[in-house]
Write a structure and sequence with these properties.
about 280 residues, alpha+beta, about 20% helix, binds zinc ion
Length: about 280
Amino acid sequence: MLTLQETSVDARRHPSNLNSIEFGPWHISYDMSCILPSMCSTKVVCERNDDQFCQFCIYCKELSIPHFPDMVFPKNNLSLTHQNGAKISFNPLDALKLVACTVDAIEVSCAEVWQEARPDATKKKKSFDWTFSTNYQGTLSDNIIVEPSEEGINFELLKQKDQILFYHDLTLFEDELHDHGISKLSVKIRVMPTHWFVLLRYFLRVDDVLVRSNETRLFHMANTNYVIREYTVKESKAADLKIPTAQMKEADDVIPFMPVKKKVVHKLIVNSESNSSS
Ligand SMILES: [Zn+2]
């Protein structure tokens, strides 16, 4: 049975006003927050170094990249928690941990454009992937079993115009690459009467150079003990897309036209006991 936390709200018209919902054995919730400050806000406390740190200092400690995106939303967090303790969550810190501290060849060619546009960038010589590209696919608790899957996501079901019980779109981080494009990680959740669906999307557009997307889709059907996870990487040089830059503003404008570089499907088994015990 599905129960809305705030039944006074019309879920179809104002789904974003809800911040949690129960879906069978799942508790689905999100948090929202303001932007990560660009400096330490509680120096006296943080300098004591006794495990109490402001968000900024936590990011400095946990991440090895020398810069953070312009906008990081440290507490924007989507969690899907099963009653047996299994948890799938999405947060910007874990995503940024996967940003490379070295750059590959194609990024170097972008970096030339980047450095020309930004002379002060040469001063900060420490190399890292300034596009903040991340292959983050969400954070899983240890009791979730991940295995390859023949079964993909039921996209026909997703296309059906079912009632939307719960919907939200959270930005985890965003950087405008000093007006040379966009690097953005966002996560959307949609809960319908028979299933839930999550789209985590990293989107990169370096204007006139490169477009890239790393998308993770999670799909769960009610009364099953698993979640299907599809991870799709797409990338194209801007010139190969033959789409004017002005028409590439939004991820949805361009991702459907990009070639798939990699696609991996997994089954996340969240409740293996339900098979054997009943
Ligand atoms: Zn601090």
